[in-house]
Write a structure and sequence with these properties.
The complex is a heterodimer of chains A (211) and B (642). Chain A has 211 residues and is an alpha+beta fold. Helix content of chain A is 45%, strand content 15%. Chain B folds into 3 domains: 157 residues, Beta-Lactamase; 158 residues, 2-Layer Sandwich (Alpha-Beta Plaits), CATH 3.30.70.270; 235 residues, Alpha-Beta Barrel (TIM Barrel). The chains are: A alpha+beta (211), B alpha/beta (642).
Chain lengths: 211, 642
């Protein structure tokens, strides 16, 4: 649990406190300017307004908020072919690629109380764009058809409605960590703190409040 | 522990610790890298296998086949598939995993093998969780090889480092060993100058200090030497003829008489010059002095074929020549030649034959005689020479009981004593005046015949020398001495080595053999006494013996010291432990001379000892002159009283 909570705390994950704290917003202003600062205030306000809403309303609110951010490739944004930006980097720069939308939406929804086991990073193939793509999927129950939060599609549709997407692989760092911990009861087997390379780097960056 | 050892130990320890730490760190890194690799392998398998399992779309049989294929083709301890509730769906576990390394290594180096996990999906839905754990057997072999290579490298580097360190330390500390040698030499009263100054500042300062001290000591010694030579000139030399004077003759006589023991008997020529007044009147003071100087040269040259000879001017008109080993016949020939040469000298100085004449009394002295008897008998001979009408020489030949024994008789006595090892040892104490403590015991020996007759050294020395058995007698005497010494006692002993023995060709070999066999085991301190005359006349030979004795830890002492040398440098060469002189010498020598001598002996730690001390009066006078150690009849009395 400690591992799960830590980035949440750093982001002001507690319900009582705002999603992004004032100290961090000041740092964001310093780096990205006053407009960026306003975006984070808006984010805090938006999430605050969603906290007592239903899961679907939370999903829609968060999806709508982040889908306003401009799409840019990692090569243009960070000079790298593939980089998983932290939610602060994503909103601070106000641009990102599909993984960055998924990450930002995931942590915002976690802030709003959605369980990690209900959310997955889904590697998919976009038939429309003929490219590898990533969306955030929401599973109300493990066997349910998930809802898809996609930066290309403003609506939240169920997976079986997304014929333009071919699922390849689901991943959830927090869930994987938890699952591996309780995987084999009673067996004294050394477990690694690592779960997934990109995820591990992302968590490390979030811990450092990378802007 | 020497400085070298301390530094070497310290640096070696630090070096080994550093190398050991590096080796351990290297090994830990290798261990960590191996474990990382094991995890990465497992993770790669988990990721790729989970993607593959996703294509089975929940078909368990297909998934098991896929897991089997992966498990069988790679090195894994286990691959586990769980559903989302954590229930085991399928598992493969290795039957036997035994690393091919020694058991102690596997125990000492536990490798933890982390589990890598991945989620398995079927279309949009996650359906299972996959755990993969690699087999560390191969990693153990890799680590064992790494440890072995590291250990070998460590041993090679440590050995090379220690060898280089040793060489470097030796090079850096080489001057220190020279400093140490110089310091040890100074402690042993050897004053050695170190000309090559060390590079290291601290060592250089120390060497400079010691060199300065050595130079000062040498300077003190030189001053003493010069003063002694000056005083000797004033005290013992006749200013006109440059011959020795009466004072010196009287001091030297005991030694010369002693020498007679080894060389057989000797001759004393006592000469009276008549008409000295005429010579002065006819030639004037300056030419008369020159005449007497030439006369002195004649006496010296005529007697110098006898090695231990002594020519002295007793007073204005009387002269004496001591010729150890000289026969009466040879003495008469010398006396006759002197008479002839005087005639020629008178002619050269245009003196009338009757202006001056010389009368010569010849006396054949014997072993064991004392100075007073010698002088009385020689004077008797001179009186007769003067009274003779038909000539100016007279021979007084003493009857000698012992020499009456024939050579064969002596041979028989000596051979018997050697064969039966019939040597009797006597010990004479050398005592401190202050507390009557015995400082040393002087050893003398005599031969014993089958009828218990005893023959002291002086009586047989000449015959033994002639028979070539003196070395054997010394050998047996020294062996008898070594046998007699109580190993539990640490007394100090001293034995005299006669000039005859030392100069004989077999002496060095005899001593080398004896000391080689017995010397190293001897705990007693043993000193070998050599006469002053021998030491300064045969310095090279004596130095060889000194080096031999020094090698076995024994010292040399000087006896019969008379200050007759003009240069006392030989004292520095052989560094005697003590210096023995007749009590008469110590009492006769001027305070200035004694002071000069002390300057030299004190710098070298040489003890001054008076021999032949007989009366309490002599002890008082010796004490007044700072001589505190005595030998002789009174020393025996003091010991007996104690």
């Amino acid at each position: 649990m400690k591992r799960l909570l830590l980035p949440a705390l750093l982001l002001g994950f507690l319900i009582a406190s705002p999603y992004v704290t004032d100290v961090i917003i000041q740092a964001i202003e310093k780096k990205y300017g006053a407009i960026a600062k306003e975006r984070f205030f808006t984010l805090n306000t938006a999430l605050e307004s969603l906290k007592d809403k239903s899961d679907l309303e939370k999903l829609q609110g968060v999806n709508d908020f982040y889908n306003q951010v401009l799409y840019t490739s990692d090569l243009q944004n960070f000079g790298m072919h593939d980089y998983w930006a932290t939610p602060l980097e994503f909103l601070g720069r106000y641009r990102g690629d599909c993984e960055d939308y998924v990450i930002a939406k995931y942590f915002a929804l976690r802030h709003l109380g959605i369980e990690s086991s209900e959310l997955y990073f889904s590697y998919v193939k976009s038939l429309k764009y003929r490219e590898a793509h990533m969306v955030l999927t929401y599973f109300p129950t493990p066997q349910a058809v998930p809802l898809v939060l996609d930066n290309y599609e403003p609506r939240i549709l169920s997976a079986d409605q997304r014929k333009d997407l071919v699922p390849v692989y689901n991943f959830n760092g927090d869930a994987l960590y938890l699952a591996s911990r309780k995987g084999e009861q009673g067996k004294a087997i050394e477990r690694s703190d690592k779960t997934h390379k990109k995820w591990d780097i992302l968590i490390d960056n979030i811990k450092r409040n990378l802007l | 522990m020497t400085l070298f050892k301390q530094i070497a130990l310290l640096i070696s320890t630090v070096l080994l610790l550093i190398l050991l730490s590096i080796m351990l760190l290297n090994f830990q890194n290798a261990n960590r890298a191996v474990q990382e690799q094991l995890y990465e392998d497992a993770k790669n398998t988990a990721s790729s296998l989970s993607l593959t399992l996703g294509t089975a779309q929940g078909d368990e049989g297909m998934m098991e086949t896929m897991i089997n294929a992966n498990f069988d083709s790679g090195h894994y301890i286990r691959i586990t598939l769980l559903d989302l509730n954590g229930t085991l769906r399928y598992e493969r576990v290795i039957e036997q995993s035994r690393p091919d390394v020694p058991e102690w290594f596997a125990t000492w180096v536990p490798i933890s093998v982390p589990v890598a996990s991945a989620q398995v999906s079927s279309l949009w839905n996650p359906i299972a969780l996959l755990h993969v754990q690699s087999d560390p057997a191969h990693a153990y072999i890799q680590l064992f090889d790494t440890a072995r290579d590291l250990l070998f490298t460590f041993a090679v580097i440590a050995t090379i480092s220690l060898v280089i360190l040793n060489a470097l330390l030796h090079a850096v500390l080489k001057p220190l060993s020279r400093v140490r040698n110089q310091a040890e030499s100074i402690l042993q009263n050897r004053f050695v100058l170190q000309e090559h100054l060390p590079f290291t500042t601290e060592f250089r300062d120390v060497v400079r200090g010691m060199n300065a001290m050595v130079l000062k000591v040498k300077e003190i010694f030189e001053k003493g030497n010069e003063a002694m030579a000056r005083n000797r000139e004033l005290l013992y030399s006749d200013p006109v003829t440059r011959l020795f004077n009466r004072r010196y003759l009287m001091l030297k006589l005991p030694e010369l008489l002693d020498m007679a023991n080894e060389r057989g008997n000797g001759m004393m020529l006592l000469m009276a010059f008549e008409g000295a007044q005429n010579v002065n009147q006819r030639l004037g003071r300056q030419r008369a002095d020159d005449f007497f100087r030439r006369l002195g040269i004649l006496l010296e040259t005529q007697s110098n074929r006898f090695e231990e000879h002594l020519a002295a001017r007793i007073n204005g008109t009387e002269f004496a020549i001591m010729l150890p080993g000289c026969t009466p016949q040879e003495g008469i020939e010398i006396a006759k030649r002197l008479g002839d040469l005087l005639i020629l000298l008178k002619e050269e100085y245009k003196l009338d034959p009757d202006d001056c004449t010389i009368n010569i009394g010849l006396y054949r002295y014997l072993c064991g005689q004392d100075t007073a008897t010698l002088m009385t008998k020689a004077d008797y001979a001179l009186t007769h020479a003067k009274a003779r009408e038909d000539g100016n020489t007279y021979l007084f030949d003493t009857k000698d009981d012992q020499s009456a024994m024939g050579k064969e008789q002596w041979r028989s006595i000596i051979e018997y004593a050697l064969e039966q090892r019939r040597l009797h040892l006597d010990f004479w104490p050398v005592v401190s005046i202050k507390n009557s403590a015995v400082i040393q015991r002087v050893v003398t020996f005599s031969l014993q015949d089958s009828d218990e007759s005893s023959y002291p050294y002086g009586s047989f020395a000449a015959e033994a020398t002639a028979l070539g058995r003196l070395g054997d007698i010394y050998l047996i005497a020294l062996e008898t001495l070594l046998d007699r010494l109580d190993p539990a006692m640490s007394d100090e002993y001293s034995i005299r080595l006669s000039s005859e023995f030392l100069r004989s060709p077999f002496a060095y070999g005899t001593m080398e053999r004896l000391l080689g066999n017995r010397g190293s085991a001897l705990k007693h301190r043993l000193a070998f006494e050599i006469s002053d005359t021998m030491a300064h006349k045969y310095l090279d030979l004596v130095s060889r013996f000194d080096a031999l004795f020094d090698h076995f830890g024994f010292r040399v002492g000087i006896n019969q010291f008379l200050g007759q040398s003009g240069d006392y440098g030989y004292l520095q060469t052989i560094r005697p432990q003590f210096l023995k002189a007749e009590v008469a010498y110590w009492l006769d020598i001027t305070r200035e001379s004694l002071q000069a001598l002390r300057l030299m002996t004190d710098t070298m730690g040489i003890t001054l000892i008076a021999t032949g001390v007989q009366t309490p009066q002599q002890i008082e006078e010796l004490q007044a002159r700072g001589i505190e150690i005595i030998q002789g009849p009174l020393a025996q009395t003091l010991t007996d009283m104690n």
